[in-house]
Amino acid sequence: MKKSILAMFALLLSLAAFAQKLPADEITGIWKCDDYKIEVFKAGKTYSARLLWSKVMFEADGKTAKKDVKNPDEKLRSRSVQGLTHITGLVYRDGEYVDGKLYSVEDGNTYSLKGKLKGPDDLETRGYKGVPLIGKSFKWKRLEKL
């Protein structure tokens, strides 16, 4: 019994230590959730991501990438959404990624974004307008580390 309690305590301590020691660049890589696949990369002192795949990325033929038709800037409406850098400005602070911006090609709006690594291959992000309580969360799995 005593060994079991000690083992459990050691496991909890190692998990807590692991969670605190993930370096900021650990977020870089290829990530996938149910509806999207993105590549997160370092852009100067912040982190950004480009859209590699989404369920709504292609026209009915399944090959032609859709255009950014809902962009509020008319000059950008003819650009392809495939490969579009849609996440910008994420800053690593106190173990979390904060102050990011998420441009949604689905509605043309820009949202605030924050995120946190839950483990080396698990990322949780939340996009929101105003306060994080009112928003949408995404759980990502790493496919490839960069």
Percent of residues in beta strands: over 45%
Strand order of the largest sheet: 1-2-3-4-5-6-7-8
Give the class-level CATH name. Answer: Mainly Beta
Rg (CA only): 18 Å
Overall strand count:
8
Structural class: mainly beta
Total domain modules: 1
> Total helix count?
1
> What is the level-2 CATH architecture name?
Beta Barrel
Mean pLDDT: 88
Low-pLDDT parts are 1-19
- Which bin fits the share of residues in helices? 10-25%
Which shape, going by the Cα principal axes?
globular
Terminal residue distance: 43 Å
Element-level helix/strand string: HEEEEEEEE
Which fold name is given in CATH as the topology? Answer: Lipocalin
SSE blueprint:
Elements: H1 2-21, E1 29-32, E2 36-43, E3 46-54, E4 85-93, E5 96-103, E6 110-119, E7 122-128, E8 135-145
Antiparallel strand pairs: 1-2, 1-8, 2-3, 3-4, 4-5, 5-6, 6-7, 7-8
Give a structural overview.
Residues 29-142 form the DUF2147 domain. Keywords: Signal. Pfam families: DUF2147. This protein has one helix at residues 2-21, and strands at residues 29-32, 36-43, 46-54, 85-93, 96-103, 110-119, 122-128, 135-145. With 146 residues, the chain is mainly beta. It has one domain: Beta Barrel (Lipocalin). The chain has an 8-stranded antiparallel barrel. Strand 6 and strand 7 form a beta hairpin. The N and C termini lie far apart (43 Å). The model is unreliable at 1-19 (pLDDT under 50).
Please sum up the structure shown.
With 146 residues, the protein is mainly beta. It contains one helix and eight strands, in the order αββββββββ.
What features would you highlight for this structure?
globular, Lipocalin, about 150 residues, 8 strands, single chain, mainly beta, disordered N terminus
